[in-house]
Structures are given as C-alpha cells and as structure tokens.
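1st attempt posting a full record on here, be nice pls
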Amino acid sequence: MRVFRFYKIISVLLRYGIDEMLPRKRVPLWAKLARLSLFWLRNQHKEKALGERLRLALETLGPVFVKLGQMLSTRRDLFPPDVISELSKLQDRVPPFPGEQAREVIEASLGFPLTTIFANFETPALASASIAQVHAATLKSTEKHAAKDVVVKVIRPDILKTIHADLELMISVAQVAAKILPDGRRLKPVEVIREYRKTLLDELNLAREAANAIQLRRNFTDSELLYIPEVYSDYTRQNVMVMERIAGIPISDVDALTSAGIPLKVLAERGVEVFFTQVFRDSFFHADMHPGNIFVDPSRPEQPRYLAVDFGIVGTLSREDKRYLAENFIAFFNRDYRRVAELHIDSGWVPAHINVEEFESAIRTVCEPIFEKPLAEISFGHVLVNLFNTARRFEMEVQPQLVLLQKTLLYVEGLGRNLYPQLDLWKTAKPFLERWMQEQMGWRAMLRSVQEQAPRWAEKLPEMPMLLYDTLTTMRTHQRQEASLVIANEQLARAVAVSRWWTMLAGSLTVTSGLFFASGVHEYATLGALAFSAVAWVCAWRKTPQRKV
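the predicted structure (as tokens):
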C-alpha cells in the first residue's frame, strides 16, 4: 500500500513537471538516471506555468497535500511570487461523506443514541472539509444548560491511516530536498514538514481543538473585540466536538457588512488589535484566521465584534521570542534599523559574525519605502519576499516556531485590505506594542510580578525560619568538614615527604651495597650496607601513607 501510494505521488508530480523546480546542478546523478528511466511519466502540462502545475498537482494528490500547499503559500522564502499566488488559490472543498455514516461515528464515539442529547440532528452536512465535516443540531435542555442550537463536528472515518502514510513520505522527500536544495540547511524543509505534521495531527484531535477553544474563550471573556463559541465538553471526544452555533456575517462579505451599518475602518482596526492581543498579551493565538473562519456580530454595529470558529490550529510563543518580536516591531515602527539588525543577531536568528552595518543597510533598503503609506499601497507579501532575500544573503535561518505567526500576519493583512484599504497598520499597531513593552519592562511589570508571586511567597513564609536554620547548619557542617580536610591533607603531605626521604635513603644504601660487592670490598662492609638498606626499606614502607578503602 505504501509503495503504491509513493508511486502515485511521484507519478502525479512528474506528470505535472514539478521536478523542474529542482536546481539541475544540485540533483545527484542517480536521481537524474532514475528520472530518465521513468520515460512514460512525462510532463503533460507544459503549456501551464509552474505555479499552476504545482497547485493542480497538490489538488490531485488529495486533502493532506492541499493543506500542505495552503501552508506553503505563506512561505515566501521558499517560492517566487507567481508560485505563491497560485498556492494561495487552493481551496479545501471536499464532498461530504454520507450523513448516516456520520451519525454512526458520533453515536459510537459518545456511547449513546443521538436522540439522548439532541432534540434535532440534521443528517445532511452543513459544511465539509478535508479533515472533518459539520452537522447542525439542537441540544436538549438539561440541568447544566438550556436548549441550544449547536454544530457537531466529526472527523472523517479512516482518514488517520492515510494521513500518517502521506506524512511519512513527505518527511522522506524533505530529507532528500534538504540535501539537493542550495539553501537546504537554511530553509530547513525537514523541520517545516515536521511542524506541518504536528499541526495537522493536532487538527485530527477534536478534544485538543475543544481545549484550544476553551482557552481562547477564557482569554476573551467579556471582551468587546472577539467572541469564542461555547464548547460542550461533556459531548466532546477525540473525533467528535459539540459547539455553540453562531450567527454572523462572513468577514469577506463587505457589502453585507456595509448594509448592516458596521464601520469598516473600526472593524479593521479592531482586527489588528485582536491579533496583537492574542500574540503579545496571551502568547496564544488563533493561527487559521482565513476569511472562512471569521465572522462579525451583526447585533452590535456601533461596536463591531469578531466571531471566530475552527480552533484546530493555534500558535504559541516563548517569552524570549515574544520579546524579540515586540522589540523588532517597535524598532521597525521607529525606523531604527540598527536595532533591528542587533536584535536579529542577539536572538541567534543571524550568525554573530555578520557585519551589523551591512545588515542594517540592507534592512533599510527593504523597509524604508513602505512607511507612511496606506495599506492599499503596501504588500506585506512583497516586503517579506525582499526581507527573506536579504536574510538569505546574511545567512539568516528560518525559524520554524514563527511560521504560524507569519501565516496569521498575512491573513490579517488580507482581512485588513479587504475591509478598509486605507488602514495604516503601523499607526494602529504601534501604540499597542509600546504599551505592551512598558508593561513588560517598566515598574508595572515589576509590580505585576510581585502580585503574581505574592501568594507563593505567603505560602512559603512560615517555612522560612526552618529553611534558614537548616541552611546555616549545613553551612557550619561544611565548614567543619573543610577544616578537617585541610588538616588531613597537611598530615598526608608531611607523611609523603618522610616516606620519600626513607625511600631515597634505602635506594642509596642498596646501590652502595651493590657497588661494594662488585668492587670486592670486604664482605662485612657489603653485608653491613645490605643490612642498613633493608632497615631503610622497612622504615620507608612503614612511613608510606596507607589509602583508606
């Protein structure tokens, strides 16, 4: 089965001429010979552009590869703009599997008939994607909750086996690409596929998605910016999730938003604030913010609020990455390109041997033209391409942990451009980041740290006297042991010196007795020398320090 699947993947890629993307000089001889031997798998779409052929090949290979293409569409360091444009067209539209089969899967997972908890369950799928599909339903009223319109998300049956097989093949291909591609080490194709694998497998676990939704909902409790639907954990399993059904206007339907009286400028600015709040305040962000997952609450047009769904992909940042990113953003906003270059080197993203002045000049060349322009005149994709080309010159390695953040930032750009093309992203984001940096590094940060640690200190305070006594006792014991060790070392040194003196004397007397014997000196003198040497050897042995076992 695996061999057949591998052959199918290779045949599709070759029939679309995807092998033309590999640099000829770096392809090993064995690979060229193998390509020639597959003479019946010729490029059948020579009239199409390379980007279009890559998109069509991924669509032919199925959902796993479609999702890979969607992720690669954000990797502007890997492909030229025309290829990225084609990959961005990938749509994850898959026919639904039978509704009756979905009912069976849900009942088997929950362990009881659907009629037990649902007053109504719509067998035809409400929506369908490559990983799962969604059915509308109505929860019955119980002691825990009132009757509620919900959606039931169910993973496609038997998809896990196919996904695992495809991912293993992708890893193998990435390992070959890492050796063939000129920038294989810097671009880290194996790490990229492994990151994709982790993301995709996380999407297959609806219990994890439910936990992500609950976390985001808690982060934005009573928020005026973002609403996260309620998850019903009692009815959620690894392959089934029940969530509150929301009603909103799709973020891509600008005409409907305008008809509802929603101010698009305010909505766009709030979208930027939602993004930066998730990233820098919470270090936990919705990483799949494409238009199909974002809606707007029409019930409050004067204060537009976002509604989000599909939480299978979330991103997190370490404290160090978050701080470096915030400082980089602020340095960019302030046009302090020297600081940007230094931050890249300090963080290890660029090697320490790189000339800071040259790197600063290169960054200025890329970024200076984009400032003081409305969003309609700025393409972050174009800026990223130039930045990655610049980074390639300065040996900057791709940071896999930032791939999701980059993808989300590009989604935010697209949403902002669609809603309000004149939005100045820089002016909208700068005050938020400056306020965040002040909270992280100023007196407020110190006060917050004290407040956060106070309960722990209060818990440990009664133990402090005993801990202090134990510490002093241990220190006193160590001091005594050190003093005893010094005395013992001094005694040992003296004993070694005495032992060496007796050994030298014994050796001298032994040599003397040998000379007496060889020269024919009177035998009494020889015997006397031997006797004295024997006594000296005994004394040397007695004076030698004995090791304690």
